[in-house]
Amino acid sequence: MKNDGSMINAFVPGQGGLTENESRLVERRAKTLGPAYRLFYKHPVHLVRGEGVWLYDPQGRAYLDCYNNVASVGHCHPRVVAATAAQAATFASHTRYLHETVLDYAEALLATFPAELGHVMFTCTGSEANDLALRIARAATGGTGIIVTETAYHGVTQAVSGFSPSLGEGVPLGEHVRTVPAPDPLRLPGDLGTAFAAGVQAAIDDLTRHGVKPAVLIVDTVFSSDGVFADPPGFLAPAVEAIRKAGGLFIADEVQPGFGRTGSHMWGFQRHRIVPDMVSLGKPMGNGYPVAGLVLRPEVIADFGAKARYFNTFGGNAVAAATAMAVLDVIRDEGLQQNAATVGAAFRAGLADLATRHAALGPTRGAGLFVGQEIVANGDPMAAEAAEAARIVNDLREEGVLISATGPRANVLKIRPPLPFSLDNLAFFLDRLDKVLARTSVKSK
């Protein structure tokens, strides 16, 4: 089964199994929100409350959240909630007035980046950040060509959806967009960095042959929608060299891997020992509050800034800055980056142990608390099992664990819990996964 871009783990209306109240809610959604929205899971989850790494339904049943990186420091973290409320009760406005809060946060955020990345521009969403990055890149390079991986996701604005192939054939790619194979060590021969860079160079050559000047290579630095590819550290460097040699820029999309999730570093690109030209930030930045941003080299913004003004009513307002500062403080004070490293290593070890008993578990990939687990047939790493992956995701939901699936073959379990995820939480997850895998029709070892 190939991922056609539709949501892998989607509810299909009319398949039954819902309570009377759930059926009413589904009908209300269809009537009010229209046809473009999707629900997770064969049996949708009705959630009313969150706390830490747990989510709760109306009956009080707890679900272990192993998927929502939006609440990066845990659902409803009291320090973040307090910061949001206090600032909202004091002052909330945009960046056209002098105010210390946004400057304090900008300085604190930039201090986590290499010195070459000296400016930050604030938006509300990662989609907006990538949209802004493209505008700046076009001004800086004079090019329009965009290179992304084959199942990438970078956002939903008009421009950004045009280089987000994971949205499916119903959302066409822009004519100046070229896709390259994901850095899959099973499917790219030889040295991974060399092989991935060869794909990027082929895309550059094709753009040039058609009279299109390359502007950007943009990648999610753990390639989450492509199936989660984090290793070996450093493999991205040759591809970055190729796009810069062609006169383009490199954008690191850190919306999913950023803010300490990879464990060893604050930002995913740092694992590859490179400094991007721009870095887009999003979901985890405000722990659920809509704040995002673009961190960039000063020389990249110089031409754009001289000719165009940038303004965003809510991007970088005082409430957003106070909320984001609280998130940054919690990551530091609670040691969440180190926790991601420690629990992430135990996560992969636990999955490796389960793989000795369950042939459905193929290669495990990832960094820190971002894990991709291949589901395969009979232990064959090249035999993707999309239907089995969907069953596991839905059976885990029934066991009180929330994850999803990803990748071009729809067979990679996508696991990215909030950063406070503990070893006890991991034991709960592994126990439930072991139970679910025991029901499989895939041959056991």
Automatic annotation (TrEMBL):
It comes from the Bacteria. GO terms for molecular function: pyridoxal phosphate binding; transaminase activity. InterPro entries: Aminotrans_3, Aminotrans_3_PPA_site, PyrdxlP-dep_Trfase, PyrdxlP-dep_Trfase_major, PyrdxlP-dep_Trfase_small. Its cofactor is pyridoxal 5'-phosphate. Keywords: Aminotransferase, Pyridoxal phosphate, Transferase. Pfam families: Aminotran_3. The keyword Transferase applies. PROSITE patterns: AA_TRANSFER_CLASS_3. Belongs to the class-III pyridoxal-phosphate-dependent aminotransferase family. This is Aminotransferase class III-fold pyridoxal phosphate-dependent enzyme. It comes from Neotabrizicola shimadae.
